[in-house]
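Quick log. Single chain, no ligands specified.
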Amino acid sequence: MLQVETLRHSPFLFMASGYDDSTPDEVKAADAVAFIKACKPNILLVEDTDYIQRINTLFLEQMGCQVTVADNGRIAFRKARRYHYDLILMDIGLPIMSGIEATKAIRLFEAKTGCHTPIIALTAYGNLVEEECRLAGVDGFATKPLLFENLAITLAQHLTRKI
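-> predicted structure:
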């Protein structure tokens, strides 16, 4: 049984306890999911492949996220300018405007507003595109195919930094 306490009256600081025979990775993922559920973050998922959109949306909704989907970088940039998101999951290999181009455009817009939304690059290429992504302004990486536990931990780490 998982018990979550919020500390200092904030949904962003918590302590979880009550695990029986869980492995360290299971505990870490369970803590991350509990944290995300407490935050109820608004996530922009930028992915062009329909079935991957559905799987990732399902993962995110199971964690308590509100999910908006964009299927190319241009739409993602328009949505990021118009609406507030707590975090953006950005596929790198997108049609019309790549994830790297969209990230650069979002960062230029944010420079004018003083805001910063964490952007996590979704890539099947691993370290091959890491430097280019970092230069564009990406905050972190998630390797495809996404695993529920890894996604939860990555989201929690970047949502915590946003505080």
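Confidence is low (pLDDT under 50) at residues 1-24.
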